[in-house]
Amino acid sequence: MMVILNNKISPTSTDDVNYTPSFIVELNSTSNQRVQSFLSSYKGHLVDVGFFLLEGLRNTAPQHLAARVGDYNQNLFYEMQDNGKDISGIIEGVQHDDQKLQDDIDTFEMTICSSLQHTNLTYRGSFMRTESTIYQPAHVDYDYPILEQYGNKLFLAFFPLTKEGAYLQLWQESSEDQNDGETVEGTVVFIPYGKMLIVPSATIHGGGFKRGSSGNLRFHLYIALEEKEVQNEDNITLLDHPMNKYTEKDDRRHELCERFVDAEGLDSLLGVYFDVHPEAGVASNDLKGASGTISCKLDPHNTVETDVANRSASYVNLFGLSEEVEVM
After folding, report:
1. Cα–Cα distances in Å, from 154 out to 10, 81, 119, 224, 303?
2. Angle in degrees, 0-180, between the axes of helices 51-60 and 98-116, rounded to the nearest 10
3. Residue among 164, 136, 125 nearest 76 (CA)
4. Where is 93: in which H helix or E strand?
5. What is the model's pTM?
């Protein structure tokens, strides 16, 4: 059993391993009023994912993922799958019951179409695993010009591949006329095994949670509507362009995490509820500045000038490419 006091967690026994702290929203059922409220606020969808699909992807996942996400924490591993490969193509070659798997895949794809009310969509996936819990800075998954022009055609989805489930922190962006610079506290959700969360592409979010031996192995989907039409008209393939952006849309001198802060109570879960192994990455305390907030500097090997006039922001592409953009 664990006791919650002022959004802080205190263990009283090691028996209740499946306990979820009260301020984490467990996305277990769309009939749950709290889940309904969350989905409404974030314009999200919660759908089921079949056992044979999950088993096939889990058995396909490389033991060691190819790359680290290029934020300062260096605790997230990923392996992006080739564009044009659907779930069947990713799982191909792994021993499984073909018919049951295909039924799961068909249901999976039809459910996405039904949720997004669209029949013409494509998707691209990436395996992800967390080495040690260091909360990821707030970010979006596409560059802002892409989001401005095509954001209504792009969606993100997340689902766990083990019974450890998956955790994600999300933030609600206020409308432009209501953006007064006040801090926005995150909402942490737990996605159980067998469930998938779908959210709009402009959703500000962050991972970096580990609770279990697999590192919460999960699958991250990038979904595009009308991909072929966009490619024909604008000569751009949307699923080739996911790129983590950690800075404010209209002022790249400021990082999103300066305004979008961690949910109250998260610090108290480190080493108690979430697994922490400081030797595996950068300890969270090492990332805190004088203000006590976690820095969102992206590359520990690049020096970021404190003088705003000379400061450059690093943007890290999910394919391992980085861009340096001078901030004026």
Report:
1. 40, 18, 14, 5, 33
2. 110
3. 136
4. none
5. 0.82
